[in-house]
Design a protein that fits this description.
The complex is a heterodimer of chains A (464) and B (437).
Chain A lengths: L3 H12 L5 E17 L2 E19 L2 E7 L4 H12 L33 H17 L4 E19 L3 E19 L4 E6 L2 E2 L5 H4 L2 H16 L2 E2 L3 E7 L6 H8 L4 H4 L21 E4 L20 E6 L2 E2 L6 H7 L7 E2 L8 E2 L3 E4 L6 H6 L3 E14 L4 E13 L2 E7 L2 E5 H6 L1 E4 L4 E9 L2 E9 L2 E9 L7
Parallel strand pairs in A: 8-18, 9-16, 15-22
Antiparallel strand pairs in A: 1-2, 1-4, 2-3, 4-5, 5-6, 5-7, 9-23, 10-11, 10-15, 11-12, 13-14, 16-17, 17-18, 17-19, 19-23, 20-23, 21-22
Helix pairs in contact in A: 1-2, 3-5
Chain B lengths: L3 H10 L1 E19 L2 E19 L2 E7 L7 H14 L24 H5 L2 H16 L5 E19 L4 E19 L2 E11 L8 H13 L9 E7 L1 H10 L6 H5 L20 E3 L22 E5 L2 E2 L6 H7 L7 E2 L2 E2 L4 E3 L6 H8 L2 E8 L11 E12 L2 E14 H7 E4 L4 E2 L4 E3 L2 E9 L2
Classes of the chains: A alpha+beta (464), B alpha+beta (437).
Chain lengths: 464, 437
């Protein structure tokens, strides 16, 4: 890691311009991944990232440079190159950094580098075996494992000088079920900000069987009808709908530029009374948590929507200047190769009062989306598209036959208003979120919810 | 850096063969948003990937901490990686081919040396032209993204190959707004020649795409004849590319398994891979394993001729690698559906009525590359009397990609490539199931 005097040198070199902000993000990350297919380890890969990102800004206008030539001379040369963008008169005094700050709210018991590869291999074997034993229809299982230890030092002209260590691990199981006529897959991928002790806390076999259960269920499913209908979206990964359709539109990245449907709507009613939504980067050992955001500010809990009313955006320092708002400590990035921006951490719709059974019993006809697949959204229009990984028809208040190939299509702002039942069974689930500052770990979550009416796309034409 | 001592040390430890891929890259990224420079990034990086065969297994690692003093620890890491591998799959480090095609026109010094100031000027001008082109343009953004790359591939069997490529994308993104309705659009130019940054057509396209979509609404559910626009068809191809990769075929993850020399598409369809295309950063005389590349038809007039192979998958089937081994797996260089004769206007006239699909959303989630099924949110235009009529959005197109390839009615002449160098002309399909209102 860079010495304090080098960090100060870079920041002061940058401020010797008309810039009013300078930041250094130094990173050293070790990642290990293992992948298994055909019940044999195919790849064992280790990767080391080592580099520095330098950001210089005047107001909200910024320049960014990154390099893995991390000697002082190269870094100063890069800084000189970048600061040519701000050629006006000097506005800031010379700064000096205080004592380095750090905290550790996400205790790790067994660091991944202390675990022998053979232990990781036997973990994959357990998952593979359980996934395959679930059914004779399971013809293939792809099991993956990853661990990462990201050590960062962040220093900026805003009296920031912190170090943080982010340890994460995740197991992924993708099961393929097939028969003569069809092939379907199911996925499950639990993870957290833990070391290897995580695998003592979860039921590895049960997590693996879950992927197989989805694949086999869908193998015998009929095509989903195309129709507008009520949709019950189950807890856990169902929260991806909020993440994609609303969460991204509440990030300053799009709000600040007026490119979001929720720009200028703070204090306004944007969802039904039943909707309270939270983004919380402080949840202990959660997948999307950290001690500090990637501008070195302590992570926080943010109430985004309070009983339907837009309460807070997710804001980073630079976009905050454009919006005349303070940072909500929401700045994140994949690595030193990315300039940070406002991103989600662990985002979920909060618990309501209905039980799961209430919601199903009160639905005469509709779709029950038990597991959601991925989705995408156009943040300027709010148009979204989600695939349903595991779906069932609901008939006469009961869960009926499984259906495959369903997609949910709509716009975020409509869907938020149409949520008419919210369950009491909040669950979070892990995902990777890709956006402007790279791919980052993020939890999605919600209790079971019902959207009164939404367009369901499927391959079956007769919608009766 | 001289890697010979690394190869020597690895042999002493018991490695059969070792290979390194060293790369250096330099990039420039600029974005102008409503008249302001919103992004200005420069980077310089280097990376090293090491592979080595130890007791019949392939170990692998990568690092950015590149220093000769790490040679010993790299070899230990590489050995631990090889020891964890259980796969009985064949492993190969290639001794090299006798000759390699010299690829022309993939590096332009003029691009790399053009000043950042000049590049900024191009982006500022583009954004300004887009912003002022129509009063309904609410948000306008222009971007420039350039990368320059040098790659060195060397191994202990004496292979030593290198290449230098560069390219840039100049593009614009708009949001048009009217009557509380917003529509976004973007278009781009990819090249390595600064003189190709002629923005007239780009400005016209992006503005037209945004403004003409205003007021879009779903059509009735039903069967429609459709034309999928070139770049949208190319993106759709991308979602199903894994079907053509031998590793997926061999593992039972492709519906094309056992279909070699069978008809898998309409007889008009040829799927071509051309590693020697000018101005493409994907063009190369050798793949990531050092195998000489060549131009080939993956589908020739509807018949599946070959899968894409790397050394490992080829060895399993006792065939030659097709020069598609990249980054440890299989990838394409420049891959496209061979264009036909008709331009888009003629195709629209011939179709008379139906839908023109210009966008498919959710390609990373609404598709199953294993089964070929897809169900995607689409938008575009109604085609009436052979012309584009009112805009359409929030409809869903559901089908199966192999069924689609079999059902293609017409292939246009308007080949266009995506950022990942997948190409397609516009394609027409009849009686496709669309769900709308």
């Amino acid at each position: 890691m860079l010495e304090k005097k080098v960090l100060e040198h870079i920041i002061n070199e940058a401020l010797d311009s008309s810039a009013d902000f300078a930041e250094v993000f130094a990173e050293n990350t070790m990642q290990n991944t293992l992948s298994m297919q055909d019940s044999a380890i195919q790849k064992a890969l280790s990767n080391e990232l080592k580099g520095v990102g330098i950001r210089i800004a005047q107001g909200y206008k910024s320049v960014y440079g990154h390099t893995n030539k991390t000697d002082e001379k190269s870094l100063i040369a890069l800084t000189k190159d970048l600061k040519t963008a701000f050629s006006g008169e000097r506005v800031r005094d010379v700064i000096s950094l205080g004592e380095i700050q750090s905290k550790n709210n996400h205790n790790v018991k067994v660091y991944p580098n202390e675990v022998d590869v053979s232990e990781k291999v036997s973990l994959l074997k357990r998952a593979d075996k359980a996934a395959r034993l679930y059914s004779k229809d399971i013809k293939q299982a792809n099991v993956s494992y990853m661990d990462t230890v990201q050590n960062v030092t962040i220093a900026s002209s805003e009296a920031i000088y912190v170090k943080d260590s982010r340890v994460r691990t995740r197991l992924g199981v993708s099961s393929v079920a097939s028969n003569e006529s069809d092939m379907q897959n199911g996925f499950n991928g639990p993870g957290g900000s833990y070391g290897f002790e995580f695998y003592d806390q979860i039921d590895v076999e049960e997590e693996a069987r879950e992927a197989s259960r989805i694949a086999v269920t869908m193998l015998y499913a009929d095509d989903c009808p195309s129709k507008t209908m009520p949709v019950v979206i189950d807890n856990g990964f169902g929260g991806v709908i909020f993440h994609e359709a609303c969460g991204h539109s509440l990030e300053a990245t799009s709000v600040a530029k007026n490119a979001s449907v929720f720009s200028g709507k703070k204090g306004e009613k944007i969802g039904s009374d039943l909707v309270t939504a939270i983004d919380d980067g402080t949840i202990v050992n959660a997948w999307g948590s950290a001690n500090y955001d990637d501008e070195g500010l302590p992570q926080k809990r943010r109430v985004l929507i309070d009983k339907g009313v837009l309460n807070s955006y997710m804001v980073d320092q630079l976009n905050g200047k454009r919006m005349s708002e303070a940072s909500t400590h929401s700045s994140r990035r994949q690595s030193y190769r990315f300039a940070p921006t406002s991103r989600m951490s662990n985002t979920y719709i909060d618990n309501g009062e209905s039980t799961f059974d209430d919601i199903i019993e009160n639905t005469d006809y509709g779709l029950y989306a038990r597991k959601m697949g991925g989705g995408s959204v156009n943040p300027s229009t709010g148009d979204f598209n989600f695939s349903v990984m595991e779906g069932y028809m609901i008939r006469n208040g009961k869960i009926a036959e499984p259906v495959k190939g369903a997609t949910l299509v709509g716009t975020g702002k409509d869907a938020l208003k149409k949520i008419d039942m919210v369950g009491n069974n909040l669950l979070r689930s892990q995902g990777m979120c890709g956006s402007a500052s790279g791919s980052i770990a993020a939890d999605v979550g919600q209790p079971t919810i019902r959207i009164a009416s939404i367009t369901v796309g499927g391959r079956k034409e007769d919608a009766s | 850096m001289n890697f010979k001592p690394l190869f020597e040390k690895a042999k002493e430890v018991g490695f059969e063969a070792v290979q390194i891929k060293y790369s250096e890259s330099k990039s420039v990224d600029l974005e102008v948003f409503k008249g302001d420079l919103d992004k200005h990034e420069i980077s310089q990086s280097k990376g090293l990937v090491l592979e080595g065969i130890y007791q019949g297994k392939m170990g692998k690692m990568s690092t950015e901490n590149i220093d000769e003093s790490n040679f010993d620890s790299w070899i230990q890491t590489l050995k631990a990686s090889a020891e964890a591998v259980e796969s009985e799959d064949p492993v190969v480090i290639y001794e090299g081919d006798e000759t390699y095609q010299e690829v022309e026109g993939v590096y332009s010094e003029a691009l790399e040396t053009l000043s950042v100031e000049a590049k900024k000027k191009i982006v500022f001008e583009l954004e300004e032209r887009v912003r002022n082109a129509d009063e309904r343009i609410d948000i306008s953004e222009a971007f420039y993204s350039e990368s320059n790359r040098y790659v060195l591939l060397e191994n202990s069997k004496g292979m030593s190959l290198k290449k230098r490529v560069n390219h840039a994308v100049l593009g614009a993104h708009v949001v048009a707004k009217a009557n509380d309705d917003s529509r976004s659009a973007f278009d781009y130019i990819q090249t390595n020649q600064p003189q190709d940054f002629n923005t007239d057509e780009l400005v016209e396209n992006v503005v037209e795409r945004g403004t003409s979509m205003l007021g879009a609404a779903p059509v009735e559910s039903g069967k429609y004849d459709i034309i999928i626009e070139n770049r949208t068809s190319a993106s759709l191809l991308g979602a199903f590319l894994s079907m053509f990769k031998a590793e997926n075929v061999q593992k039972g993850l492709s519906k094309l398994k056992g279909k070699l020399n069978d008809t898998v598409a309409n007889s008009q369809v040829s799927l071509i891979e051309d590693p020697f295309m000018e101005k493409s950063p994907k063009s190369t005389g050798f793949d990531g394993e050092g195998v000489a590349t060549y131009r080939k038809s993956i589908i020739d007039k509807g018949v599946l001729k070959t899968y894409m192979h790397n050394l490992k998958t080829a060895k399993k089937e006792n065939v030659e690698s097709t020069g598609n081994g990249f980054s440890g797996g299989i990838a394409h260089t420049n891959l496209f559906i061979d264009p036909g004769e008709k331009n888009l206007d003629t195709m629209l006239k011939d179709m008379k009525s139906g839908l023109f699909i210009t966008s498919l959303q959710g390609l990373h989630s609404g598709t199953s590359a294993i089964s070929g099924d897809f169900s995607l949110q689409a938008s575009g235009y109604v085609v009436k009397d052979g012309k584009l009529d009112k805009p359409v959005s929030l409809i869903t197109l559901s089908s199966n990609y192999l069924e689609l390839l079999g059902a293609i009615d017409t292939i246009g002449s308007d080949l266009k490539f995506t950022f990942s160098y997948l190409g397609s002309p516009s394609i027409r399909l009849n009686a496709m199931s669309i769900s709308g209102k």
